[in-house]
């Protein structure tokens, strides 16, 4: 089979119902109105994926500024089952990696996956993500309830002392 055309497009009030439908079909977890309200404001952090002009996937992220670091959190990234292994997930991850690359100010990208989601774990490993933590009872209404945290490190945080010493050196040499 020849591969079709994969494109990403904005999420707008006009097509947000397609995103809701897609997420309902692809994920075992449901997302509330606040999620979709925020997605409409997310700009490049939320995209629909089209395969030959049909919506078949979507990615939704948000910026997380907790714990003194700036992280990109992938809330959802999914593709309809019949359209998997065609490069659609790759196109969405590449978009996210491009976004953080251009911004240049993120420490990590992370997400949660159900511990039995082998395909997603394999998929993210390909892009340099690693399991950094496993959270028990992370999900409330699905089994297994445990989640792995998958993370890709973009830059190693510099310990405060080194920054301080660097400043001292600069002053000393001027
Ligand atoms: C994970 C997911 C997004 C991958 O999307 P996709 O469009 O199939 O991914 P791609 O076609 O770009 O795959 C890229 C590579 O990832 C790896 N990969 C993807 N699915 C895989 C699977 N089921 N088993 C093993 N490796 C897999 C392969 O190396 C693949 O390259 P290849 O097809 O040339 O071998 C898709 O399976 C999905 O939507 N799953 C349900 C939603 C979900 O769990 N999302 C993750 C949590 S946000």
Automatic annotation (TrEMBL):
Instruction: Spell out the GO cellular component terms annotated for this protein, sorted alphabetically and separated by semicolons.
Output: NatA complex
Q: Quickly give the catalysed reaction.
A: N-terminal L-methionyl-L-valyl-[protein] + acetyl-CoA = N-terminal N(alpha)-acetyl-L-methionyl-L-valyl-[protein] + CoA + H(+); N-terminal L-methionyl-L-phenylalanyl-[protein] + acetyl-CoA = N-terminal N(alpha)-acetyl-L-methionyl-L-phenylalanyl-[protein] + CoA + H(+); N-terminal L-methionyl-L-seryl-[protein] + acetyl-CoA = N-terminal N(alpha)-acetyl-L-methionyl-L-seryl-[protein] + CoA + H(+); N-terminal L-methionyl-L-lysyl-[protein] + acetyl-CoA = N-terminal N(alpha)-acetyl-L-methionyl-L-lysyl-[protein] + CoA + H(+)
| Coarse class of the protein's main subcellular location | cytoplasm
Residue ranges annotated for the N-acetyltransferase domain, each copy included: 6-155
Q: Which GO terms describe its molecular function?
A: protein N-terminal-methionine acetyltransferase activity
Q: Provide one Gene Ontology biological process annotation.
A: mitotic sister chromatid cohesion
> Which EC class does it fall in?
transferase
**Location(s) in or outside the cell:** Cytoplasm
- Pfam families named among the record's database cross-references: Acetyltransf_1
User: Which EC numbers characterise this protein's activity in its record?
Assistant: 2.3.1.258
What keywords appear on the UniProt entry?
Acyltransferase, Cytoplasm, Transferase
Name it. Answer: N-terminal methionine N(alpha)-acetyltransferase NatE
Q: Which organism is it from?
A: Strigamia maritima
The root-end lineage is: Eukaryota, Metazoa, Ecdysozoa, Arthropoda, Myriapoda
